[in-house]
Design goal:
Low-confidence stretches: none
Structural class: mainly alpha
Number of strands: 5
Number of helices: 8
Largest sheet: 3 strands, mixed
Order of helices and strands: HHHHHEEHHEEEH
Mean pLDDT: 94
Helix content: 40-55%
Strand order of the largest sheet: 4-3-5
Shape: globular
Strand content: 5-15%
């Protein structure tokens, strides 16, 4: 499997910037807005914020594992993870902000504490995926950027930084959906001429068929692949856009 290139120092800085942007957006809300629906079905904004706080500590656990060599899972269990999100969802704005700031500070400290000689150490994430320690900040950045969009506070896919969009598109094509059996062979073409291949690797007679070509801006491609866009800004050249498996 082709892995996302690591740029640990860049990703650490990007996490800090994305955290600051998120906190600015959240600080403009009020208690009533926290309880309103987010763009994620079944979740309020409070659910999204509680998840982001718990995710910071969960990924921090993996950084601690990488630094010490002592197995430290993201969550005690899936049930505990779910209960913690539900328990935190209904808190007022002040409590949400305090939790976000404190967990962000702990994650930042965990990033700072990881020595370079441990960057290549591999840990196991909640879904069983094995990941290098130096790619954990990118995992956190993805959570911050996409869930900022999910809050429905005016931060859209089109406002994502080009640097993040490029990293995320590479990850989605080369890791997340590479060889995915539920996604047909795709060739994604950005407006600037860049191309990516992803999706199912067909064999037999079907292997001769050309991949489905989807063209649009890099941001629109990321929005579609992550479920943060309906693909309305994309051109599939006369073919129907396939349903993208959930992340």
């Amino acid at each position: 499997m082709t892995l996302t290139p690591s740029d640990f120092p860049h990703d650490v800085a990007a996490v800090r910037e994305a955290t600051d942007r998120l906190l600015v957006s959240v600080s403009k809300l009020d208690d009533a807005a926290i309880g309103e629906p987010s763009l994620l079905p079944g979740w309020t904004r409070g659910h999204v914020l509680a998840h982001l706080a718990r995710n910071a500590d969960a990924l921090g656990n993996l950084l601690t594992w990488a630094r010490t060599g002592v197995r430290t899972p993201m969550y005690a269990s899936a049930e505990v993870r779910g209960r913690d999100i539900e328990r935190g969802a209904g808190r007022p704005l002040a409590a949400q902000l305090e939790d976000l700031r404190e967990t962000a500070a702990r994650f930042d400290a965990a990033m700072e504490a990881l020595p370079e000689e441990r960057w290549a150490f591999e840990v196991e994430m909640r879904n069983g995926v094995v990941e290098r320690a130096d790619r954990l900040p990118l995992r956190r950045l993805t959570e911050l950027e996409l869930h900022h969009v999910d809050l429905g506070v005016g931060h859209t896919v089109d406002q994502l930084s080009p640097a993040f969009v490029d990293r995320e598109l590479y990850f989605l094509c080369s890791v997340k959906f590479a060889g995915h059996p539920e996604l047909p062979p795709l060739e994604l073409r950005a407006d600037d001429g860049r191309r990516w291949r992803t999706g199912r690797a067909d064999t037999g007679p079907e292997a001769e068929a050309a991949p489905l070509v989807v063209t649009g801006s890099a941001a629109a491609l990321v929005g579609w692949l992550t479920g943060r866009g309906d693909g309305g800004k994309l051109d599939s050249h006369g073919s129907e856009l396939p349903a993208v498996p959930p992340l």
